[in-house]
Design a protein that fits this description.
The protein is α/β, with parallel strands linked by helices. The protein folds into 6 domains: 168 residues, FAD/NAD(P)-binding domain; 130 residues, 3-Layer(bba) Sandwich (FAD/NAD(P)-binding domain); 80 residues, Enolase-like, domain 1 (2-Layer Sandwich), CATH 3.30.390.30; 68 residues, Arc Repressor Mutant, subunit A; 57 residues, no CATH class; 229 residues, 2-Layer Sandwich (Sulfite Reductase Hemoprotein, domain 1), CATH 3.30.413. The chain has 28 helices and 38 strands. Helix 22 packs parallel to helix 23. The radius of gyration is 30 Å and the shape is globular. Pathway: Nitrogen metabolism; nitrate reduction (assimilation). Keywords: 2Fe-2S, 4Fe-4S, FAD, Flavoprotein, Heme, Iron, Iron-sulfur, Metal-binding, Nitrate assimilation, Oxidoreductase.
């Protein structure tokens, strides 16, 4: 028997840091080692950063796997999953697992990661108290959400907010408990944290700040969380996300020096020859890193060391965090807390939801915080690391203005980046690594770059930068590969709609089956969109699939941050009567409605209503639903026009009421708001609405594509007409053309910019085509019913609002 000349390398820990080091080593010295890997979890190497996406239902385990079983096989790696190493014999160089497997080594890498810190509270051992660290925790949360309603997350850091977001998407009532005065204090300053909290509260998340947990109450299963001030929070599930601790037990038991983590030098060597440590379990120069980029940097150094390649040792990392928390972009890097001797520059736009802060010392950038707009994060982090002077450039950097060297070209900006700049934070991929993959590795598409470097393989936030680098280095050789509406399919919106038409597909399940969805159950992105497309194409035949609707549309009311709902009855054109007002007031008094408010669309909003009271309130009101919760026509705002105003040129009230009655209950790709102003003074703000009508002498101006929300957009003038009938004709044609051509969840403002006003004008210029579109929209409207009245009169539907455990999958709007 010929003995192998290859050395034996054993890796303890099948996580991201350890396996990344092995990937580097295989490229540098593919034939040097016989590699054996032990992993405690029963899974191949997966991306722990993406667990929140699994929890939210957007992805499953197969989509977050970094290296599947085939990869280990192809590289002749012996993999033991579900094996926990119990002992290391450092004298004889042997490791032993809890399942009795022994493996000899010449070189040993410890990448045991970290363990979630569980608060030692009385009752912490009760059923329903878990951490948020691995796939198993995700599975427990998803199962719990099927039978229970209230969840409490202890910890307002990044991990806690990710857990809360996932639970919110599962339909649970979620409260985040945090001991500090503001959330994410390790990544953000107070101003950015407050803005983030407001965004998350708008999504339904609740916060209990400056609260110290005292005990977990309940018999066998958790019932509530007791705080030091004597107050309690009701809970069916408690998730502890208060931090992590390096997993050092194995090293300590084996005689390896341990402090907070396993102590290593610049080459990741422990005090025992031939034993190395990297990742969250390692402590380098007194620091144990918990972010992925430093761990990958450690792995790159260790791989070169093991391959015999000369390398500079690991000198520590300046850390940055670029992430998307529940759809909100956040970046922080360096020293953002204004240390002594520094000064800070700030820019804050509450309306636009943007906050920027630069921390400067001795004319050098030492820290930065970005909220809402993180496009300059990579450039700022590069300046933090390089330590170059920014004197005279402070204002331009704060406001994101181009300097003379970079101008405004995104490609030039990428070209000016340093090669060691991290492009993909999830996988620690630098600009230089991507450039090499393109220039030397022959990658000509984002998909190939993803396969080669793993850049953009996780959250996808860096994809625009990867595309820019591809354009920069590949030029005309770059191949653009289309991506589907979600990870379940490669088909675009237009392709899906075309296939539904061609094959006359009539159900969500049928579409996913026939069009070969990767995930046979779909996800929170594609199911609601398919439900809309089918209803739009086959209004008279398709039966709306309630389970594919977002939460607000399923309960026909807007869910609020405290778990209650708001009710907005339909008030046509904003015009009401004493009798109608009296009815609303009596209902509000009868059901102890906490708040009655006039909305920005001239409607009355009854806020703070319990779910079980919704049908009773709708019954007592006996008014149509205002559809303030759905992707439908919301309101038609009006001014008094010629009825009373001395400047009014047309009857805007009558026109507004006619339009609202014409299009109420209309399902659209995204919410739609209309307004009618009685004169060019535009008191009804018609020029920031999806469809705005402005009265002029002898006619009406018709405006389209406006938005008064976060991204304000003034309308474009579509045309000028003379009669009210023409207003309805053009409004019908425009709305139906939008319904048939926009993507699901695409506002008219975005759609008009994407397709261009000229293309819309051309599509609507022939009256014959406008009348055909009007006929189709009337067909769609003819089969709609008022959901409030339907639920009030249907005992089976009313049962859905009774206070019982929820068992259905809930899709929350993202």
């Amino acid at each position: 028997m010929i003995k192998s000349s290859r050395k034996k390398l054993v890796l303890v820990g099948n996580g991201m840091a350890g396996v990344r080091a092995i990937e580097h080593l295989l490229k540098l010295a593919p034939d040097t080692y016989e590699i054996t890997i032990f992993g405690a979890e029963p899974h191949p190497n997966y991306n722990r950063i993406m667990l929140s996406s699994v929890l939210a239902g957007g992805t499953d385990l197969s989509e977050i796997v970094i290296n599947d079983y085939e990869w280990y096989k192809n590289h002749n790696i012996t993999l033991y999953t579900g094996h926990k190493i119990e002992s290391i014999d450092t004298e004889n160089k042997v490791v032993r697992s809890d399942l009795g497997v022994e493996a000899a080594y010449d070189e040993l890498i410890l990448a045991t990661g970290s363990d979630p810190f569980m608060l030692p509270l009385p009752g912490a051992d009760k059923e329903g108290v878990i951490a948020f660290r691995d796939i198993k925790d995700c599975q427990i949360m998803m199962e719990t959400a099927k039978s229970y309603k209230k969840a409490v997350v202890i910890g307002g850091g990044l991990l806690g907010l990710e857990a809360a977001r996932g639970l919110l998407h599962l339909g649970m009532d979620v409260s985040v408990v945090h001991i500090s005065e503001y959330i994410m204090e390790r990544q953000l300053d107070r101003e950015a944290a407050v803005m983030l909290q407001k965004e998350l509260e708008a999504q339904g998340m609740k916060f209990l700040l400056t609260k110290q947990s005292e005990a977990i109450l309940g018999k066998k299963r958790v019932k509530s969380l007791l705080f030091a001030d004597g107050s309690t929070a009701e809970a069916d599930l408690i998730v502890m996300a208060v931090g992590i601790r390096p997993n050092t037990a194995l090293a300590k038991k084996s005689g390896i020096t341990v402090n907070r983590g396993i102590v290593v030098n610049d080459y990741m060597e422990t005090n025992i020859p031939g034993v190395y440590a990297i990742g969250e379990c390692a402590e380098h120069r007194g620091i144990a890193y918990g972010l992925v980029a430093p761990l990958y940097e450690q792995g790159a150094v260790l791989a070169k060391k093991l391959a015999g390649v000369e390398t500079q040792g690991y000198e520590g990392s300046v850390t940055s965090t670029k992430l998307k928390v529940s759809g909100v972009d956040v970046f922080s890097g360096g020293q953002y807390e204004e240390p002594a001797g520094s000064r800070a520059l700030r820019y804050q736009d509450e309306i636009g939801g943007v906050y920027k802060k630069l921390v400067i010392r001795e004319d050098k950038l030492i820290g930065a915080v970005l909220f809402g707009d993180t496009a300059d994060g990579a450039q700022l982090f590069s300046l933090i690391k390089s330590g170059e002077s920014i004197q005279g450039k402070e204002r331009a950097l704060l406001l994101g203005l181009p300097d003379d060297a970079v101008k405004s070209s995104p490609t030039a900006r990428l070209d000016a980046m340093a090669d060691d700049e991290i492009i993909c934070g999830c996988n620690g991929v630098s600009k230089g690594a991507i450039a090499e993959a393109i220039t030397s590795g022959g990658c000509t598409s984002v998909g190939q770059i993803k396969a080669c470097t793993k850049a953009s393989a996780s959250c996808g936030g860096c994809k625009p930068l990867v595309e820019g680098l591809l354009e920069l280095y590949a030029g005309d050789a770059a191949v653009k590969v289309k991506e589907g509406i979600c990870g379940c399919t490669t088909l675009s919106r237009d392709e899906i709609v075309a296939e539904i038409k061609r094959m006359e597909l009539k159900s969500v399940k049928e579409v996913m089956n026939v069009l070969e969805w990767n995930n046979e159950e779909g996800c929170s992105k594609c199911r609601p969109s398919l439900n809309y497309y089918l209803g739009m194409l086959w209004p008279e035949e398709y039966v709306d699939e309630k389970e594919s609707r977002i939460t607000n549309e399923r309960f026909h009311a807007n869910i609020q941050k405290d778990g209650t709902y708001s009710v907005v009855p339909r008030i046509y054109g904003g015009v009401t009567s004493p009798a109608e007002l009296k009815k609303i007031a009596e209902v509000a008094e009868k059901f102890d409605v906490p708040l009655v408010k006039f909305t920005g669309g001239q409607r009355l909003d009854l806020l703070g209503i319990k779910k079980e009271d919704l049908p009773k309130i709708w019954e007592e009101l006996d008014m149509p639903s205002g559809h303030a919760y759905g992707k439908t026509l919301r309101t038609v705002k009006t001014c008094v026009g010629s009825t009373f105003c001395r400047f009014g040129t047309q009857d805007s009230i009558a026109m507004g009421i006619r339009l609202e009655k014409e299009f109420e209950r209309l399902n659209t790709p995204a919410k739609v708001k209309l307004a009618v102003s009685g004169c060019p003074r535009n008191c009804a703000e018609a020029t920031i609405k999806d469809f705005g009508v402005v009265a002029i002498d002898g006619g009406w101006e018709l405006h389209v594509g406006g938005n008064g929300g976060v991204h304000v957009r003034a309308t474009d003038l579509l045309c000028v007409v003379k009669t009210e009938d023409e207003v309805v004709e053009w409004a019908s044609a425009f709305l139906q053309y939008y319904r048939e051509n926009a993507g699901w969840n695409e506002r008219t403002s975005t759609w008009v910019e994407r397709v261009g006003l000229d293309s819309i004008k051309k599509a609507l210029e022939e009256r014959e085509e406008r009348l055909a579109l009007q006929e189709r929209i009337q067909t769609a409207l003819s089969v709609t019913t008022d959901p409030w009245k339907e639920i009030v009169s249907n005992k089976k539907l009313r049962k859905n609002f009774e206070p019982i455990s929820r068992t259905e999958t809930v899709y929350q709007e993202g």
